[in-house]
Structure formats: structure tokens, C-alpha cells
Amino acid sequence: MPWIFLLFAGLLEIVWAVAMKQSAGFTRLWPTAVMGVSMLGSFGLLALAMRDLPLGTAYTIWTGIGAVGAFSVGILFLGEALTPARIAAAVLIVTGLVVMKLA
């Protein structure tokens, strides 16, 4: 169960990061509200996952899901640039996540 909590915490991290971008510096009500609710949910699920998972593993996986997910949403939906350097960075993050899980 802790891995399921961690997966959903990471997915909610993507939601709050995108909502934060869409909030235009907290000037738009609904994206700001979505950000706040998804942030609370993400932190709550992360806390549940950390009951059973090591801190370093849980936090690294959570931030990695959020980072790669936000990177992907930015490219697929927000028109952000897809460059070789950014792809390499995402690959390095995923590689780090795999190594952390195996460690």
C-alpha cells in the first residue's frame, strides 16, 4: 500500500505544479484552489507512504514523479521546448529513481 500512496502523491504533485503555473502567481481563483487541494492531498499521501518507506526513497521517488510529470505536461500541453538537454535531464532523473528503488 505505501507504494500506491506514493504513486498517487507523485501524481498529485504534478497536478499542483501545473495548477500553480496556471494560477498566474495566485491571481486566478480556480487554479489556485486546485493547487491548494492537490498539494494537501499530495503531502498527506506522501506522509502515509513514509510510514513504511525510507525517507530518502519516498522523497526521491515523489519528487522524481513530480519533476518528470511536470516536464511531460509542459511539453505535451503547454508548448514548452523539447531539447536534447532537457530529454537527457529527464532520463537522468528516471535513472536515479530506478537506482533509488533498487538500493
Automatic annotation (TrEMBL):
The chain crosses the membrane at residues 33-50, 57-79, 85-102. The keyword Cytoplasm does not apply. Keywords: Cell membrane, Membrane, Transmembrane, Transmembrane helix, Transport. Coiled coil: none annotated. Belongs to the drug/metabolite transporter (DMT) superfamily. Small multidrug resistance (SMR) (TC 2.A.7.1) family. Gdx/SugE subfamily. It is a multi-pass membrane protein. It is found in: Cell membrane. Signal peptide: none annotated. Pfam families: Multi_Drug_Res (PF00893). This is Guanidinium exporter. PANTHER family: GUANIDINIUM EXPORTER (PTHR30561:SF0), SMR FAMILY PROTON-DEPENDENT DRUG EFFLUX TRANSPORTER SUGE (PTHR30561).
